[in-house]
């Protein structure tokens, strides 16, 4: 998955917002809460994708070569995919959708209603 594909996919999820933070990181939010990040910290390196996980997904993904606990976010069960091809684009999209759902369900009912997300 490329950064552009990541951005297009995340933009297609309901009620998302996008900002560029921390230099050039592509940060996706729902209800003001981050669910996925694409970052490149060193010029010439490939993009790294980070997202929130369930406890089980976190355990499984952290056992794969090329995926680590996300820097600064691991305590909240975030992973970072560091190497292209570690997981398929389809799996990446599924995990990002799962991350979106985890974060959206933690929003207040009033916020979910305001964003039209009561069925998330």
Automatic annotation (TrEMBL):
Signal sequence region: none
Spans through the membrane: none
Keywords in alphabetical order: DNA-binding
GO molecular function terms noted in the UniProt entry: DNA binding
InterPro entries hit by this protein: YjbR (IPR007351), YjbR-like_sf (IPR038056), YjbR/MT2646/Rv2570-like (IPR058532)
Name used for this protein in its record: MmcQ/YjbR family DNA-binding protein
Organism: Kordiimonas pumila
Upper lineage: Bacteria, Pseudomonadati, Pseudomonadota, Alphaproteobacteria, Kordiimonadales
């Amino acid at each position: 998955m490329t950064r552009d594909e990541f951005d297009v996919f995340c933009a297609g999820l309901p009620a998302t917002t996008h900002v560029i933070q921390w230099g050039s990181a592509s940060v996706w939010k729902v209800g003001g809460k981050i669910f996925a990040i694409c970052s490149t910290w060193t010029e010439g390196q490939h993009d790294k994708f980070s997202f929130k996980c369930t406890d089980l997904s976190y355990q499984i993904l952290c056992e794969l070569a090329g995926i680590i606990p996300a820097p600064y976010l691991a305590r909240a069960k975030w992973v970072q995919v560091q190497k292209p091809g570690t997981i398929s684009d389809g799996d990446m999209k599924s995990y990002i959708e799962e991350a979106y759902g985890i974060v959206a369900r933690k929003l207040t009912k009033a916020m979910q209603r305001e964003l039209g997300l009561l069925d998330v």
